[in-house]
Amino acid sequence: MPNKNYFDQQTDSAMSSKQHVPPTDIPELEELISRPTDAVISTMLHLSGDILVLGAGGKIGPSIARMAKRASDQAETARRIIAVSRFSDSASRKRLDAIGVDTIQADLLDTDQLAGLPDAENVLYLAGHKFGVTNNPSLTWAMNSYLPGTVMQRYRDSRVVAYSTGCVYGLSDLTHGGAVESDPLNPTDEYSMSCVGRERIIEYFSRVHNTPTSILRLNYAVEPRYGVLVDIAKMVLAEHPIDVTMGHCNVIWQGDANAMALCSLAHVSSPPFVVNLVGPELVTVRGIAESFAKLFDKQVRFVGTESPSCLLTNGQRCHEMFGYPQVPVQTVIQWTADWLLRGEPTHDKPTGFQVRDGQY
Fold first, then answer.
1. Phi and psi for 40 in degrees, rounded to 5?
2. By the 8 A CB rule, do 257 and 61 touch?
3. Confidence (pTM)
4. Is position 205 within any domain?
5. Which of 67, 306, 311, 359 to pair with 174, CA 20 to 30 A apart?
6. Domain extent for 262
């Protein structure tokens, strides 16, 4: 079943977006991204043990740790939520400490520090390296292929949810409707090859130690501070031309991705349960840019021609397991436009979604 084309159904999404109020500042945004769904609360109610979040200082980690904490509290289930990172952003660590998440500063590549981390029945593995692969490929391979093996051995007796990426499929023909989980992997560059390495190593140790695991091929999470939508919105605001060669993509609201990831703890298996973590719509770069142009009252200029192949994944299995995302794309577009027009901060980390050769 191919993905829906979002911009053919803009009216319905726009109607549903009226039910959502845009966040006005960082505390409101972080509350929204970490707001647990009923399904997450139910998962936490029936799940035993503490939850350890490895790589918790990045773009995803703080909000998923906070959601796990909030859902556990609402389920009245006593457990520790432990967030581990180098925490180069001390403010992020302080915000987690303030809500009762236990934080540990550690370098996961240091085997002694990894060995010294607390045991936990549940592990969320978020660590990885993408940007800078061209200048430092060895670090990319160490983070994406070596480290997963050491983590899987250290936490062989845990349930493990490991993040991956839709890049492992390579470019997919638009007529195919996006890669499905059973499709062969087709890495074409060092980054995507290292990510296939991550999956293979995780699968190997899952089989060897019978470690129940899920692998989540995320593609792409968005919120008003970061993501494909922010990248396009900033270009429209600055009146820069929009390259539409990589003309289509998938996006999913970060809060929905967090909820689905936590719910996947109930579906871990050995060999690993693999699922594309993605929204239901096939969105167009041109359509996104035109939506922002209307909201910003800007003219938009396009360059290039839409390629018949893009980095696309099909989310049918995801939505059958976890339901459709609660926040539609049009809502996130409106929230992002409002956020940028009011001058609220962004992470200032472009996604590189236009890249077709893996040179991040």
1. -70, -45
2. no
3. 0.92
4. yes
5. 359
6. 4-341
SS3 (DSSP) at 270: coil
CA–CA dist 184, 238 (Å, integer) = 40
CA 25, CA 92: separation in Å to the nearest integer?
15
Residue 159 inside a domain? The answer is yes
Mean pLDDT, consecutive 10-residue segments, the chain of 360 residues? Answer: 42 43 93 97 98 94 97 97 93 93 97 98 94 82 97 98 96 90 94 96 98 96 96 96 94 97 98 96 94 97 93 95 94 97 92 72
Six-digit token string for 75: 């389920």
Q: Which residue type, as a one-letter code, is found at position 194?
A: S
**In this structure, what DSSP letter does residue 37 have?**
P
At 16, list the tokens: 């549903």
What tokens does 186 get?
């087709």
Q: 140-147: list long-range contacts, CB under 8 Å, 24+ apart.
A: 140/190, 140/191, 140/194, 141/190, 141/194, 141/197, 142/109, 143/109, 143/194, 144/191, 144/194, 144/195, 144/197, 144/198, 145/194, 145/197, 145/198, 145/201, 146/109, 147/108, 147/109
CATH number at 149 reads 3.40.50.720
